[in-house]
Amino acid sequence: MSTTTETPPPPEAPKLVPVADTTLAVPLKLDAFVLNPAVAAGGDTSEKLGSKIAPITQPNYTFLRLSNYVVQNDILDHHDLHNAAPASRNPRLTNLANGKELRHRQGVYLHWSLPRVYRSGMAAADEAPDNRGRDGIPVTPGLDEDKVDRSAPQFRVVPTRWLVIRRLHPGTAVPPQAKTKIPEIQAWVVESDRLRDIKYIPQEVDLQTDVSPYMTSETDGGVSINRQAEVFIGQKYPAEEWIEVGDQTPDGKKVERAPVSLLTGGNMLFADYQPHNSNVFSIIDNFCYPNPLWRSGLDDPDVPQYLYLSEAKASYYVVGWHPKAKDDPFYGASVDRAARLAASQMELKLKTAEVSKSWTDNKAADNASQILCHGAMYEVVWNVGKAPEKVPADDASKQLHDHVPISVGTTAIDSLLAYIHGHVTQKKPKEGEKPKEGGKEEEQTDMQKLLAAILKIQALLLERDDTVDAQRQATDLMYNYNYSAESGGTKWYFGGSEKAGQPAKPPTQAMVDTLARMNDIQLHLDQVERAITASRWEMFSLWWKYISDVRNVDPVHKALVLKDVQDATQRKNVLRRAKDQLTSDLAELQANGQLASDKLGAPTAEQKKYLALAKKEVQPTFFQQLDPTVMVAGIDHGWPEDFMELLQVRLAEQVTGWGDAATKHNGVDWGALVAAGGAKTKGVLEKLPDSLKKTARALVAEFFALMPDAGGKDPAVTVPGGRALPQYHDQAGVQVPADQVDKAATLRDHWGKTQPWFPLFVEWEVEYYHVPIGEWELAERRTEGDVALNKLRYALKEDKPLVEKRIDDRRTCSGRVLLLPQPSFSLKAKVDEVIDNTPRDLLKLTDDELARLRTQLRSLKLLSSPLSGLTDQLATRAQGTHLKPNIRAAGQALKPLADAYDENAGWRDDQFTWMGTETDLTPFATLVRSDKKHSIFKPATHGQFRFTKFNIIDKFGQAIHAIDPRWHPESKPPAPVYPYISEFYAPLPIQVTIPLIDPTKPADPTVPRRTIWAPNIIDADKHADEPHSEFVQLPVHINQTARMNAFFVKRDADGQTWVPQSEWENPIWGWLVLNYAQHGLQIFLPDGRFYREIRLGGFTGATVGEKWLPFAPPKGGAQDAAASTAQIDALIAKLDNADNLQEFIDMINGALRKAPPAPETYAQFLNSIVGKPLALVNVGWSLELAEPEYASEATVENQVPQPVCLLQHQTDEIKPKLIPRYTFPFKLGDAERTYDGLVGYFDTLDKLDGKGNNLKLDKIHTYFESDKKSWTELVTPAKYPSLQTYYHDLMRYDSGQQQWVPIPTQTLTQQRLKEIKAFGVVMDPFTPVHAYSGILPNKELRLPSWTWQEGIARMTAFFRVGPIIQPHDVEPYQAGFRLYGNYTIGDNKVPADAKGIHKGVVVPGISARDGWRWLQPYFIDKEEEKKPVEKPVEKPVEKPVEKPVEKPVELVAVKPEGSDTPAGEGEKPAEETPAEPEKPVEEMPVDPPKKEVIPYPESGDPAEIKKWLDSLDEILY
Question: Is pTM beyond 0.70 here?
């Protein structure tokens, strides 16, 4: 008989509320811009410089052609504003050929901004999971896996169908008779992906406003590169004529389509710049209607085909969708909708509603969804003869001209703080008074009050601790943000333990050597990989120079190029093989601890255990100085305030118009949009995909229901439960309640008689002057602010004003950068964080200031962008939109262009495959003309620049300029720009006598001259009445990536090379402890054993104690001890001089006075009661380039060679000479910064001397002065040490083999080690040492905690006491208590049964309860030492005598490691074997007293103590 137990059924999943429609309504921002002659007037007088309308400048795809060497570095020219106003001179509004007005271009320009879901892409490493399906990134069906390249960013396809609905408000159309010709409700459909060939575009189509230039690749089925200038996309259809035909018309004709995403098209401005996306993401409503007098065939210019309304008021609505459901971000079966929403940067507006939860949780196989984009703009006023009432662009132009609110800094925050300092705090100085850097005299406005509040918490923006030291450290850390970072490679280390929970055992020397070998190979491999990246760009650079050269059709030139290509190909093959070999060697070493070629046999089990613990960590990063960042204050950025937040989307049934069957709202009948009929005659909403029709109808109903009435008043809409208004139907991101909607300010979807202003990009141009490197010095500069401190930076020498040096090495650089919203949003987030997490008393803000920061910061108007490309151009490399030889379809591998091949010049598949994606920058080639006097190429930047152009252009082409573009070289130049400059870039003031004397002409004594304080700039004499600088100073920095390496080092076996120490080696070669009691210096070995003491006093003024005493030498013997202490002995020999010792002690005292407290962990060590120990270490520094040294990428003839190089080169002469190299000084340590642990440092010898000394001991460099200065040398800028950059080639050319051969790893390692510049350093073991270079981030070198814990744990605190007269003799010498070199005080225990036998030694002020132990010197001989060791007795320390006596001899007191219990209690006898005794102590023991002293009364009774003192008197007196 058996029984069965039923398994209970699983709990039922909660029932989902039915969702009526799975479509998502996604809001987008719709903007309407009015263009007419009045708008384009531009303030064409010098008194009123208003905004201008930039002429249309489209990408010139002709410059992509490879034939006729017309290829250009950038296919998009800068906008020419010099003749943009009035409208009659602007080619955007007037045909300059005949002077006729382009009336069809006037009207309302509608542009819709794509949601963020389409602005973000995805890229993944090969080993990373493929999340494209999860996140809604389309996966190309049927594509071979070997053609997929997931490392390339892939963007979602954008919606390419857009329905635009216009409602003309009744009674507003002028002329009135036109109302019969132009309907109240009109609609159009835009097909964004419609590909159009210029050959088939009708003549009446305007190529600048009716279509958009677009680049399609051949891999996408597009056209060849030579036809790109003839290809356009975008077409607008009247809604009543449009039907969806897909890729094929009803009669079977193919419809050309282009895949449209933000990645394709080759134009970074494409999605947001309206002149570049007409009829793709924007349309022009010119209010045209048919002319009743016109008929087909009539060619009468006075009878145009269309007439135009001169006045009207219109409201617009846009709906967008994907014509192919598979392109939709929410397409797919079993979609995780919650994950898809997050990946799309959206959230449901009513996310807590039951229907929202049901929609999100539904993971059924048929849960596919779609999105429908929508946006509205109400009551746009059109008047052909008037500009809108409010034009923010004109306000921005006035702000830019009247206040010049431009600041320059290292980052956006730095630029903002520079503006605040200059705009709020500074006043114009009087003549002759030294000005402060930056700043202008201003009255405080509301904005300035807000900026002043930010200034108060400036320090807290860096570090929430407002102490001076914390702020200094935070400032130094902020300095690191001035640089871009690149990977420094990988390092191997042994991590973890064989058994979990147990400490790791030190590896054997063999394993340490194996690890070092692995790291040498890894460094080699990292360098190879960086060289491969450089080699890829080098190959592209060769190709670009070839195709842009007018000689590229010449067979002779082709042959020369072929040789260069073959050489580059051979070198890249060497690199590729080296990478494969090194990767293989590294894997073999990690597996076996050796290479097969070593022939050492199989690794042992112990070796394999350690090899399994080998792990990777990152090497220090390479850095390069960022280009300066420009910020413009007081000008709104235009992006929606909530743009960076999650987009608020709604389900279809949450739209307020859901289920509304009416087609008439607010008196507007829109039934024609949903009318039934045939394929063409039915309403346009009925032509949408079936799955979207209901949602589209609900959205359109909502649009009309929210439309203002004839008086402009918004309807009081009651929002039913479970519904929500659209995101942009609110006020600045804040939803307005229905009962207050008529009281609210302009809603975001209301035009409000205000022209939009959306700054999109900046076009800049600067004039750069290269100041020779000899004119610069690295020195301390005092900074202004709440935390004044010295900062190390490069500045011009102050020998004489720069203007008198007549610098003429000049270059013009220019660029284009996008204006993004992140800086303003980041500042708001940072300030909020500071306010929320800082105590109120630390904020130091008034209630008003705190309220301003809380409420007004979001509206702070800031524009910010870097001057990207400035450094690249100085290095003869150019940014821009240009032709790339390799193209790719979305998600596919790269494929070369067919037109890019030229086998006669060596350009084949192999070369293009090698280039890969390293094609972003182009070489200058023939971009610039040769300078007959100066080198075009600048390996390092050091100079000054001033702006010659700074134009801000918005999404509709509205332009404002900081410098008036309307001037001729023969006329007076425009007023210069005086930006607010952060202290990093600010020229320092200097005294200048003006007017200058021209050395080529005789001085005119009748001309009065005066001396003023002025910024030390190129032309200071031209700005005598302006105390602020037109020029921004660029301190010295290298124009390619580099890093400063720092190591603890030791000498190699050859006695010359410095070698970095491994993490298992202790870099400390000695310890120093000040003995304040005896005015001396105690020296300990690295492991904490006492070695020697030096004291002030004696015959020579300095007394050097015997080695090891009061302890015996170590067991290794005197010879081994001498070898390990050779460096310490050399230092002691130098200290055996009263002046030197006093200077050394003064230096240490000075350093300790400014040193931070020791860490709490140090308090547990015994030595902490005496003072902080200092470590003696050797450190090494080097300056490494990440890639091969840059060279000029210009191909113009007769170039002047560069006068200074980063690496060593020779002149190309019969008798070559060495070209000077850059030498970069750096500062080691800093006295002001308590977080820097340097006390002093020695230079090092080129080679280990015969006595084991590495250091140049003739001088010690320090920041801490002594009254005596014979040995210590104060560190000054003139005496900073210096480094030169290095990069060692990975291959050499073998002339015998006539090929390139790789350099072995061992050779590269030796070359790299020779670059190390070493120093012997005295440092605080708890605090790192820093190197400050001014060209790279500060470099830190810190001792690992285990290195000082080991030594300090053993270190013994002791000092000499006496001579002291004792009431009884000391005990006879007992060998069992002798201390040896490898001592630990606590090991010399006294057995318990010997207690009380020894009479002890009385030391005033020293208590046995404190754990001190008395050490007594003895005269002994070898015979005494040979006697058998007797049982030791206890040696307790008696209660000390309060009153010491004269000193005939010296005794020693030592504090052992342990607790506060008296010495000797419960201790075991020592087990050490006595070693050979050192030379006996010369001091004599105390003669025994003739009378016994009464034992000290332990009871503490006063009467007994008096008796005890009386007995002492009898003996002493």
Answer: yes
